[in-house]
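Morning F.,

Quick status update on the modeling queue. The single chain you submitted on Monday has been processed. Sequence for confirmation:
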Amino acid sequence: MEGLIVPSKLFGIMAAARPALFIGHPTSEIARVLTENNAGVVIRESDSKALIDAITSMASNRQEAVAMGQRGRAALLGKYDATTACGMWSTLLEKLGTV
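Structure tokens below.
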């Protein structure tokens, strides 16, 4: 399902205003959400150096890590919250003529 869905734990991380470290394919849906919102770091599988670098960078630059978390929370509330999602579904269904 990679590339098609976003596990709810990502939204929990975003709701908590924490930056996310995602280890997976850079074209996956999780990677897209993190990259579009600059809310975390995407690391390819088996790239241990990139993982170490990301952890080290976040630990040494707390301000940027906090800012990533805040951007994630803002995106969650503005793009991925229930009201916005339901509105998007409603618009889609109206366009399809099913409502």
